[in-house]
Structures are given as structure tokens and as C-alpha cells.
Specification:
Blueprint: E1 11-15, H1 27-38, E2 44-49, E3 53-54, E4 59-60, H2 76-79, H3 89-98, E5 106-107, H4 114-123, E6 131-133, E7 136-137, H5 142-152, E8 160-166, H6 185-200, H7 203-207, H8 216-219, H9 227-234, E9 242-246, E10 249-250, E11 254-255, E12 258-261
Helix pairs in contact: 5-9
Length: 263
Amino acid sequence: MTSPSTRRMPSLFIGHGSPMNAIEPSPYSRAWAALGRRLPTPRAVLCISAHWYVPGSPVTADDAPRTLHDFRGFPPALYAVNYPARGDPGLARRVAALATPTPVPLSLDWGLDHGSWSVLVHLYPDARVPVLQLGIDARQPPAFHYALGERLAPLRDEGVLVLGSGNVVHNLGLIDWREDAPPQPYASEFEATVVAAVRDGRDTALIDYPALGPAARQAVPTPEHYLPLLYVLGTRQAGEAADTPLAGISHGSISMLCVTVGG
């Protein structure tokens, strides 16, 4: 691993899919590992995970966040995963200050859920980069989350990687558990629509995602997996490019789209 970067960090959204991606080789986990090797090493990661969807915007502030196994019914090997990254209470206070006027309580009650560590075990497998998580306020509309991302953008110039972890298409009610399940048409349509809007810089359209077309209702039946993308897009500077280095539909109805801003 190279030394932590002090130049402007990119921001990154990753479609995390099944937690089994943490321990099973897949095209997605291999692509995440390649991203970790290509991108500059941050001094810390601020992760916005779909799996901390709560009434408020808390940030983890402990020195050693615990690894949360926030799922059921998976093999024992997955429950044995430990991701021993340090926290950074000072950075947690900085996040809270930047987020003003949004209250950001400093939390010792959470940790790193699988939306974070199932990706981080591939991005930074040695766990030497400190990691914080920021909760997603379930009470707020999409524009709130984008605006909060805008206020957190200065972190990029402080060597912090803002990492959103979710899925822009996430419909478990229509999932097909076969490994070779073909993409469902609505899923492919919505993912392609998001890719075009990201590359064209049409962030306003992505904030108002229900208006992106008839596929949106099936693609985003609940918002928590989509919203992390808005935090990442909110950190984009004027004229800054965004790319989609990975796309594809897993199990028919889960988009594995990744988005880099400034990477």
C-alpha cells in the first residue's frame, strides 16, 4: 500500500450486492480490488452504507469500530469475517462540523456494517485505513442527502475517501437466486438511465429519481440503497468528470454499478 494521499481524493459509489461478495471471488470483488490498487490511498474513509438507515445522521466516533454481521442465513465463514480498521474520533468531529446545520451525533453504538466491510475487505484488505460510517436519515427526501454530500465535499481535499455503498437497482422481491439469472428488463433499463445521467452530469435528474422513467418504481422500491449515490454525487466539483467503471445486474434485480467522481 502506498502512503496516504493528501491531494484531492476521488469519491466512490459501489454497488455492494450480496455480502457473500466479501468471501467469494466474483467479477465484482475483483473489480473492487483493482479499484483499490488504482486509486490513491486515503488517510481515512467515510462510508455511507445503505444498512445504517435511521432517524438522523449519526457518525461513528469510536477508536475501534466493531465488525457488524447484520444479516441472517449465511454460511459460518461470513460471520467469521472481522475487519479491524481503526476509527478516527477527530475526523468524526470534523464531519459533524461540516454537516452544519444538520445535526450529526457522535455515535458509539454502531460499527462497520456489511455495506462497508464487504467492500472494504477488497479495497483495503490490510484494514490500515481508518473508517467511519455516516448514517442515512430515513426521514429526509433525496435532495437532503445530495446537499449533505455537497457540504462534506471539503473532506476530499483533506485526504478522505467518501464511499457510498448501496445498489441503484435493489429489488429483493423480484430477485432470481440463480447465479446465471438474466437481467430483468426494468433493471437493465434503469441502470442504463442512471449511467447516462451520471456521465452527463445531470445530478438534478438523479435526485428526482422517480421521474427517471417507468422502470424507477421497480428498480427503487425503497430508497436506502439508492441514496448513497447522492452523497457521492454531491461531492462532485463543477466540471468534474464522473465515470462508471463497473456495471451489471446480479441475480436479475441487483445493479452492481460503480461510480467514481474525480478518479
